[in-house]
Amino acid sequence: MAELVQLLFAGLTTGAVYALVALGFTLIFQASEVVNFAQGEFVMLGGMVTVFAFKAGLPLPLAAALAIAVAVTTGLLLHRLAIEPAKGATVVTLIIVTIGASILIRGLAQIVFDKQFHAFPAFTGDEPFRLLGAAILPQSLWVLGGAAAIVFGLWLFMERTLLGKAVRATAANRLAAELVGIDTRLVLALAFAVSAAIGAVGGILVTPITLTSYAVGTILALKGFAAAMLGGIGNPVGAVLGGLVLGLLEAFAAGWISSTYKDGVAFLVILLVLLAMPQGLLGRRAVERV
Amino acid sequence: MNRRRLVFCATSAALLATGPTFAAEPIKIGSFLSVTGPASFLGDPEKRTLELYVEKINAAGGVLGRKIELVIYDDGGDASNARTFATRLVESDKVVAVVGGTTTATSLAAIPVLEDARIPFISLAGGIEIVEPVKPFTFKTPHTDKMACEKIFDDVKKRGFSKVGMISSTAGFGASMRNQCLKVAPERGIQIVADERYAPGDTDTTPQLNKIKGSGAEVIVNADFGQGPAIVTRNVKQLGLEIPLYQSHGVASKSFIDLAGPAAEGVRLPAAAMLVAEQLPEGDPQKKVVLDYKTTYESTQKQPVSTFGGHAYDGLMLLVQAIQRAGSTDGVKVRDALRATKGFIGTGGVVNMSPTDHMGLDLSAFRMLEIRNGTWKLLY
Fold it and tell me: Which backbone phi and psi does A287 adopt, to 5 degrees?
């Protein structure tokens, strides 16, 4: 029992981060069909800016706020300077643009910050508490709670605000949305800003557990993308589900099967799922209208 | 430009006409290092050290009455570049010996070229494959992973334990050290009861440690460097595992203590004397060498000393002394002199070479340290 709970929390905590990255992928994909591979860099910025602002003497909440602001600005700049000018280009071109942007952001972070690993203190202490025999870090609850709050907040925004409805309308049919007077450019910029903020919050929440460096974004983007595909790209609930499932797969594969092949096991399961359900767990089958 | 030469040859050429002291041509020593690229944290201090000490040696009159001319190429960490530069050192620069090879991969790539040319090569990389089996002209200065395993296992036995749970990264250094540890464990009377792995970049190792917890391990040994060991150390504390934790020489930098935080208390690791230069007892043979190098490096380079630069110092000094003893720059004679090195005191340890041992270090080269009150404490 203790082992089960331990693995469960290990998987859920890692999975929550994958879920937030996958959510970022989904938002931008919905608004533009672009897969933004710079998504992992927002997580990195969230962690790194907080670390350096905190070390410079800022209180942690302020440092975190600054980090979110920096990430959002980066997201908006990415949209304005890289995606917007390439409007009308094919989706593949846009994806390559985002990969280029991610390399640029990583390179800049390496110069502005450094190449070392960093961490800042956990929000409510490092002392683990016991739950059914398993040792759990309080920060894990922050990660899980934070991720849940973000998902709920995003749901409220999408369902209950006019702007949110505009985003959904754009996702459903861009041309129709434009015809009814929705500024789809604004919607896309908004999607980048919100994705960046979500990524940054994820980075801030996990850094006390996972540590951060200029290079953490790459692997997160990869895992987050896999999670988004597993859940069904374009579906926010699917993204969260995909992230959690991927995290759990890794933890249980390491704990019960073999830690050497845990990534292999996780990706094998994803492959099998996608073979059986190419649209992902919760994705809708894409219908090509002629 | 990749190619950097000390300008000394120019000045000494000018001196040639007038100065009777340097009547001969300079002695050319070649080097290829990973000054840029992923291994730059190793290659950069190595390059600085070579340049710094060649300058000092020349200022003191050179070797055999001749100046040293250093030819350094930057291979960027790429093995095929290393091979190309080794060829260039042999064919166009016509160096008498090579001190370089930042990584095991770049060293191995260059060995066939240098062996063919019968040019003594002192590698600065850790891999045991470089000198095992022994190649006629190839030497190395740093300790090996295998020695780290042996040092750890001896300490484990000393504390009365024998069941070890291994947790290692699947990447280069971790994988290589894991293999060496598994190999030497039976010889040292150690039983490996768990052998867990994690991928580079993994941020949680509690599932693996949980398995080790259930395996009956009496100590945990973690083979990796960088972020991984800090996470493992934190996770051990999180799970409340009360058994001793050993790290490798791969974490021997202050940043590990900062990252692992209070969880690092009580962690033991084998490391070079450099890390605890000030704590070495007065009678320690290495104390003077290590402190001298440390002060010289830190005062001129304005950055903290690292063990990696020390490997380059050892390599250069071994070579210079061998050339002096050989009284010649002939490849075979210098090689024979290198092989005959006895009691050379370097930053990495006391070196005693032989025709069957081209590294010459024993386990005394590693010190056992424990982290106490957020800093290194020399145990023995």
Answer: -105, 120
